[in-house]
Design brief:
The complex is a heterodimer. Chain A has ten helices and six strands. Chain A is an alpha/beta fold. In chain A, strands 2-1-3-4-5-6 form a six-stranded parallel β-sheet, with helices on both faces. Chain B has one domain (about 5-120): Response regulator (Rossmann fold), CATH 3.40.50.2300. Classes of the chains: A alpha/beta, B alpha/beta. At the A-B interface, helix 1 of A face helix 1 of B.
């Protein structure tokens, strides 16, 4: 069994990278096995050193932390990525989680939180900085509201129309398939837009894809 | 033996911890530190450091830099660092006596050797 948590630091910022290295190496159970200045180096060092945790900055020259995380998780799923960044924005946060990051901590965090986050992620658990975790909960609740609230209000016929719309059929073709008039299809289409709060066919199709109404998505 | 006294003004704990660890050098003595910018001057005037290391945030150069340079009666330089990039900025005061208008012109036309220097530390 590996006694040390092997950590790779990927950050183009010299002061941060060097400081964190000293900070982590002061911990008896953590070993900093490498330092990468950009995403390309992080990828190469992940392959060569196979760390337990990659402490990953997002904004780096060349390959950024987002793409590096995608590739690391794709090639070596057991390597955990903990994001360490100045970015508080929703966009970066959700993109990094989608890319496979197991944790997200801000550079404004207490150093004890950073050390704790490394250990938590190293154990295979998830660490989210409190303000970022709040974003996730809010997004999840909004998602639930959209998915169940509006989605549940659809009639059986509206669901059928939605599915066929999403599969690319025209109103006329849908009318033929469901043996109803094109004007009735249009009424269902209008109801779908109103109930789901959308304004276009494109949004309906995206919604249907997210809900898995189209095969292959 | 210490021969350089350094004072640290910081915003983010990670900056503070990193810098303190990196300054672990027998020739450097960290004589003080604070995250309270308005109160920094009181401590600085007591400690009279040779260098003040100040964390630059997204707001840019802290206003305290000018206050420190204006009010210090000893030779001091201020180094600005940020967690966001690798830029290291050095600020210092240069004072000369103008006896004739030619002194002013000579000063303006001389090499602007960094009233504010900036360098990349990557």
């Amino acid at each position: 069994m590996n006694e040390y948590l092997k950590v790779l630091i990927a950050d183009d910022h010299t002061i941060v990278r060097s400081g964190i290295k000293l900070l982590l190496e002061a911990e008896a159970d953590i070993d900093v096995v490498g330092e990468a200045l950009d995403g390309n180096q992080a990828l190469a060092m992940a392959e060569a050193l196979h760390p337990d945790v990659v402490l990953m900055d997002i904004a780096m020259p060349g390959m950024d932390g987002l793409e590096a995380t995608r590739q690391i998780k794709s090639n070596w799923p057991d390597i955990k990525v903990l994001v360490l960044t100045m970015h508080r924005s929703d966009e970066y946060f959700f993109e990094m989680l989608k890319a496979g990051a197991s944790g997200y901590i801000l550079k404004g965090a207490e150093t004890s939180d950073l050390i704790n986050a490394v250990r938590v992620v190293g154990k295979g658990e998830v660490f989210l900085y409190p303000t970022m975790a709040q974003k996730l909960v809010s997004d999840y609740l909004r998602h639930l509201e959209n998915e169940s609230g509006a989605g549940d209000s659809l009639s059986q016929r509206e669901r059928q129309v939605l599915k066929l719309l999403a599969e690319g059929f025209s109103n006329k073709e849908i009318a033929e398939k469901l043996v109803i008039s094109p004007s009735t299809v249009y009424t269902h289409y209008s109801n779908l837009l109103n109930k789901l709060g959308f304004t276009s066919r494109h949004e309906l199709i995206q919604y249907a894809r997210k809900r898995g109404l189209i095969r292959g998505y | 033996m210490h021969n350089q006294k350094v004072f640290i003004i910081w915003t983010n704990p990670l900056f503070h911890t990193s810098v303190v660890l990196l300054l672990d050098n027998p020739q450097i003595e960290v004589v003080g530190e604070t995250s309270n910018y308005p109160d920094a001057w009181q401590q600085i005037s007591l400690q009279r450091p040779d260098t003040i290391l100040i964390e630059k945030t997204s707001a840019g150069v802290p206003a305290e830099v000018l206050d420190i340079l204006e009010n210090s009666s000893w030779k001091v330089r201020v180094i600005g660092l940020s967690l966001a990039n690798n830029e290291l900025s050095i600020y210092h005061r240069e004072q000369q006596t103008v006896g004739q208008i030619a002194d002013l012109l000579r000063f303006i036309l001389s090499e602007p050797q960094a009233r504010r220097e900036s360098t990349d530390i990557s």
